[in-house]
Amino acid sequence: KAGVTQTPRYLIKTRGQQVTLSCSPISGHRSVSWYQQTPGQGLQFLFEYFSETQRNKGNFPGRFSGRQFSNSRSEMNVSTLELGDSALYLCASSENLNTEAFFGQGTRLTVV
Amino acid sequence: SQQGEEDPQALSIQEGENATMNCSYKTSINNLQWYRQNSGRGLVHLILIRSNEREKHSGRLRVTLDTSKKSSSLLITASRAADTASYFCATGNTPLVFGKGTRLSVIA
Q1: Contacts of A74 in chain B (CB under 8 A)
Q2: CA-based nearest residue to A87, from A110, A54, A64, A57
Q3: How far apart are CA A100 and CA B5, in angstroms?
Q4: CA-to-CA distance for A43 and B80, rounded, in angstroms?
Q5: pLDDT, tens digit, 9 for 90 and up, residues B6-41
Q6: A–B interface: beta-carbon pairs under 8 A
Q7: Strand, helix or coil at A79?
Q8: How confident is the model at residue B5 (pLDDT cuts 50, 70, 90)?
Q9: What is the mean pLDDT of chain A?
Q10: Neighbour count for residue B76 (Cβ, 10 Å)
Q11: How far apart are CA B90 and CA A3, in angstroms?
Q12: How far apart are CA A37 and CA A107, in angstroms?
């Protein structure tokens, strides 16, 4: 079984731009979650989706948004990028809620 | 919110030694998961232990869970240089809530 795939792996953007990150979960997994990892704040929860519905949202500004498609693939979007948005963005998928979550390799976003 | 806190923050051992990391959390949980992260890469799922389990093994890994103390431990036996990584526990139903991790260095 293929693992969780995140694209792109690396991204450099300029302040004020927007970015879209993609996550393809493991086949058959219906739950997708997104996390932001920075050296200062550690791993912070962004969103959780299950069967196309957002179940939970972390404490992030409205510039951060996401969605899940009918094939369980998910995207997250960050608008009006700030320098502080530079981070490793990780996506995790799980078969159902409360089951093992498997992570992708992440997208390293650098905002300059 | 539920939060796992790993202890120690950093651990340095010689190859062949055992490494023990601890995790404490605040509220009741359905399960607790341990992950490994090599520098700048994704998290690798190591083991999930359910709230009604006390101990679980996977290869050189042994995880214990004490729900009365709201704590868990991860033991890596006969460590190798390749075990050098950060280790995280994650608690919660959904979403997972992570601590800051334990940075393990295994010196050859």
Answers
A1: none
A2: A110
A3: 19
A4: 26
A5: 889 999 999 999 999 999 998 888 899 999 999 878
A6: 54
A7: coil
A8: confident
A9: 95
A10: 23
A11: 20
A12: 10
Give Cα B34 distance to the centre of its chain: 4
3-state secondary structure of B82: helix
pLDDT, position B1: 45
Any idea which residue has 């919110």 for tokens?
Answer: B1
Residue type at position A38: T
More confident residue, B72 or B92: B72
Question: Could you tell me which residues of chain B have a Cβ less than 8 Å from any Cβ in chain A?
Answer: 30-31, 33, 35, 40-45, 48, 88, 90, 93-101
Owner of token pair 């790993």: B6
The two three-digit tokens of residue A11, written as one number = 């991204």
Give me A14's structure tokens.
């300029």
* B26: its two tokens: 């605040």
